[in-house]
């Protein structure tokens, strides 16, 4: 769509990592807004996701295939962008942070694009306000247990959390310099069925085990608490920050985003088992206590609950999804997937 002379053009929003679990949900959410969308993902990935997650409802959504690890790829992908949503992460079989613990190449994906993005935006500096950059951080960057509200000092205890912190600091330093307007949203565990792929998080992994009739292993007594945020609620958090006119009140800092409603891991797994049983008609698989494996990190034993009141006050955002219904939706989506 071409702007009429004298009218303000709709902002161009570029989503890096648009074909991923969270990226698909963010694209679907942004497609409802009056923006031009550019969906950036690795070659081949954009064709793998359903239309509902591609932003096809928007007449101004366009795909952009790119390997962002190649020189100049980030600069080309974000050319002309008013808002950039940076969701690129090194994802392994189980989760992004576990992949980072064991793969020395993870830093190239988790940190490298942030530096490339800063360099690209510094090179294009000129008239007009700097672009908004929304970054998907992690609540684990704090590195402590208990309730966090975003005011705590950062003491990350995993490789992934340290990499996320390094990328965030690069973006926020560039924000202080005026190169961009940086906003980091630090997320807890994201789960649930969204418009795109189901992902490989712990909740999905446990549901798959339950469908296979396998016990659900909980480390130690399962008393560690987690704050779980539904993928569509996480996507809405990015969407409300994607308005360039709102960026001034949000830029230059990180915000913690979560539900503030902790759940014990043992109780979560038991709820997954019950939901799967309701679909299969079989008795719920047992939740069994096991010793943590040698690959466990200090983060596994630390429960974190997010107090997102500052973000709610600044944006009006609130989580909408309740866990029982969200688990049933996820289990139903897995059941459909298994039936194909």
Automatic annotation (TrEMBL):
CDD domains attached to this UniProt entry: SDR_e
Top-level lineage group: Bacteria
Keywords: Membrane, Transmembrane, Transmembrane helix
Coiled coil: none
Domain NAD-dependent epimerase/dehydratase: residue ranges: 13-258
SUPFAM superfamilies in the cross-refs: NAD(P)-binding Rossmann-fold domains (SSF51735)
Signal peptide span: none
Chain ranges passing through the membrane: 12-31
Pfam families linked to this entry: Epimerase
Name listed for the protein in its UniProt record: NAD-dependent epimerase/dehydratase family protein
Lineage: Bacteria, Bacillati, Actinomycetota, Actinomycetes, Kitasatosporales
């Amino acid at each position: 769509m071409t702007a009429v002379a004298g009218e303000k053009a709709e902002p161009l929003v570029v989503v890096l990592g648009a074909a991923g679990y969270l990226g698909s949900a963010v694209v679907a959410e942004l497609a409802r807004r009056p923006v031009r969308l550019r969906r950036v993902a690795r070659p081949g990935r954009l064709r793998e996701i359903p239309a509902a997650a591609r932003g096809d409802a928007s007449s101004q959504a366009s795909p952009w295939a790119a390997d962002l690890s190649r020189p100049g790829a980030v600069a080309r992908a974000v050319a002309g962008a008013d808002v950039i949503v940076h969701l690129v992460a090194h994802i392994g079989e189980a989760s992004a942070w576990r992949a980072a613990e064991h793969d020395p190449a993870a830093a190239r994906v988790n940190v490298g694009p942030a530096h490339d993005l800063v360099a690209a935006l510094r090179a294009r500096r000129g008239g007009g306000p700097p672009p908004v950059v929304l970054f998907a951080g992690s609540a684990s960057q704090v590195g402590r247990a208990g309730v966090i509200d975003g005011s705590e000092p950062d003491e990350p205890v995993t490789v992934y959390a340290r990499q996320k912190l390094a990328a965030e600091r690069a973006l926020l330093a560039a924000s202080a310099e005026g190169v961009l307007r940086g906003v980091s949203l630090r997320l807890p565990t994201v789960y649930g069925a969204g418009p795109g792929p189901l992902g490989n998080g712990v909740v999905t992994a446990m549901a798959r085990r339950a469908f296979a009739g396998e016990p659900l292993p909980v480390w130690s007594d399962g008393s560690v608490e987690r704050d779980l945020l539904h993928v569509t609620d996480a996507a809405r958090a990015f969407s409300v920050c994607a308005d360039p006119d709102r960026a001034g009140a949000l830029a230059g800092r990180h915000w913690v985003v979560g539900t503030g409603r902790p759940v014990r891991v043992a109780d979560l797994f038991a709820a997954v088992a019950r939901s799967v049983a309701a679909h299969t008609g079989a008795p719920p698989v047992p939740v069994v206590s096991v010793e943590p494996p040698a690959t466990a990190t200090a983060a596994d034993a630390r429960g974190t609950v997010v107090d997102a009141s500052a973000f709610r006050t600044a944006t009006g955002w609130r989580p909408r999804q309740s866990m029982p219904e969200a688990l049933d939706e996820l289990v139903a989506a897995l059941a459909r997937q298994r039936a194909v």
